[in-house]
Structures are given as C-alpha cells and as structure tokens.
Amino acid sequence: MLEHIKQFDPEIHKAILGEVDRENNTLELIASENFVSQAVLEAAGSVMTNKYAEGYPGKRYYGGCEWVDVAEDLARDRAKELFGAEYANVQPHSGAQANMAIYFTFCQPGDTVLGMNLAHGGHLTHGSPVNFSGKIYHVVPYGVREDTGYIDMDDVA
C-alpha cells in the first residue's frame, strides 16, 4: 500500500498508516468527517486532483477541463436521478461557507448568537475568536454535560 510514498517519504507514509489504523480502530463522531469507500479514495487520489476546475462544465475559467467536465456531468446526472430532482449541483463547498451564508442572512453585526463550544463538538464558525463569527457577532458558547454527553440545558439557559 502506498509504495511510492513509502519509498520517497517514509515519515509521511508512517503518518498515513497511523491515520488508517486510527480510522479502523476508533469510532468517529465528528459530523464533518467521513469514511469513504476504496473507489472514492482511488478517485480522489487520481490525476483529477491535479486539475483546477473553477466554474461550470463547458464554462470553466481555465482550459483543459474536458475530462473533469465529463466526471462532473456524470455526478450531477446521477444526483438528479438519485433524488428525483430536475437540477443538482455537485460542486463542493465548505461548511464554513454554508454557516457564513446563514449568519449573513439572519443576523446583523453585533447580534448575540448561541454557539456550541469548539471543545464540545462545535465548529470554528460557532464563535471562535479567530473566525469571522467570533469577530462580527457576540457569541455565547454552550457545551455538553461530561456525565451524559447531552447538551447542557442549564448552560444554554
């Protein structure tokens, strides 16, 4: 497994194998993380990752995207079929961008927002001082009870 990496960078190889072991022997409860199939790992590690394909198929900002366009068209068509939808967008974006859209839609700068503490399973966008949310909004953190793992409603109140 990963023979080229093992040959050229044994330290990175060891780190990757350590992560494989961690994933195989622990229960992951971070919602934004995932265990992908071998086929997805192979696709993600393919030459497709070399391509910067900003924009939509047939209307990219950079040339040389004809095969990326084929893959994206396939993914979009499959998503439409799977969900019985007329339209689909399969281009990834981050949860941080999604959270920012919610903040900007429903809040004004300086508004008070309740956000889960990062140490209790929250996200940087839940009010961390290094994130836009912690700089623009007054965020009141809440957490989970150590004995139950449930949201501490006394903390929320």
Q: What is the share of helical residues?
A: 40-55%
Question: Can you tell me the number of structural domains?
Answer: 3
> Outline, from the CA principal axes?
extended
* Count of strand segments: 4
Query: How many separate helices?
Result: 7
Our Rg estimate from Cα atoms comes to 21 Å
Content-based structural category: mainly alpha
- What share of residues are in beta strands? 5-15%
Q: How do the strands line up in the largest sheet?
A: 1-2
Mean pLDDT: 92
Q: Report low-confidence residues grouped into runs of 5 or more.
A: none
Distance N terminus to C terminus? Answer: 51 Å
Spell the H/E element sequence. HHHEEHHEHEH
Largest sheet, strands/sense/barrel: 2 strands, antiparallel
How would you explain this protein's 3D organization?
This protein is mostly helical and 157 residues long. It has 3 domains: 1-35, no CATH class; 51-92, no CATH class; 95-156, no CATH class. 43% of the residues lie in helices and 9% in strands. The protein has helices at residues 3-8, 10-25, 38-44, 66-83, 95-106, 132-136, 153-156, and strands at 55-56, 59-60, 112-116, 138-142. The strands form 2 sheets. The chain has a two-stranded antiparallel ribbon. It starts with a helix and ends with a helix.
List descriptors:
two-stranded antiparallel sheet; extended; 157 residues; two-stranded parallel sheet; mainly alpha
Q: Topology of this structure?
A:
Layout: H1 3-8, H2 10-25, H3 38-44, E1 55-56, E2 59-60, H4 66-83, H5 95-106, E3 112-116, H6 132-136, E4 138-142, H7 153-156
Parallel strand pairs: 3-4
Antiparallel strand pairs: 1-2
